């Protein structure tokens, strides 16, 4: 006896997103993005420093611009890059977390007007 496949589809409406759940989830996502940002900056600095590209660029700009170019590269050290990266990662963490909560609140307000978003689920055996 052959068994027939029955695909059951259910349509539901998403009308509410919990504010605190969205805040926690957006914090975790932004924490991962901040960690990746720091890692990429440190690996990028390491590669550029080990290959000598930073030294070559410093020499090139010093030849072109003279003493003014040395001021440009004065802050381009490992500590300077690390400090800047940490500040950017911290700001990204705060902004993305806040935006996740704001978007959840905006969705909740918009779903009151529109009735929510239709979502279809399928059960395949």
UniProtKB/TrEMBL annotation:
Keywords: Membrane, Transmembrane, Transmembrane helix. The chain crosses the membrane at residues 21-48, 81-110. InterPro entries: DUF3566_TM. Residues 8-122 form the DUF3566 domain. Pfam families: DUF3566. This is DUF3566 domain-containing protein.
């Amino acid at each position: 006896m052959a068994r027939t496949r029955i695909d059951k589809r259910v349509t539901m409406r998403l009308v509410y997103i919990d504010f605190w759940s969205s805040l926690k989830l957006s914090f975790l996502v932004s924490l991962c993005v901040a960690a990746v940002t720091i890692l990429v900056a440190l690996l990028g600095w390491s590669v550029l420093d080990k290959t000598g590209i930073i030294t070559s660029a410093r020499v090139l700009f010093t030849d072109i611009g003279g003493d003014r170019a040395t001021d440009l590269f004065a802050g381009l050290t490992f500590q300077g890059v690390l400090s800047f990266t940490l500040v950017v990662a911290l700001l990204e963490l705060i902004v993305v977390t806040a935006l996740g909560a704001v978007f959840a609140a905006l969705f909740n307000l918009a779903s009151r007007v529109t009735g929510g978003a239709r979502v279809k689920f399928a059960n395949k055996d």
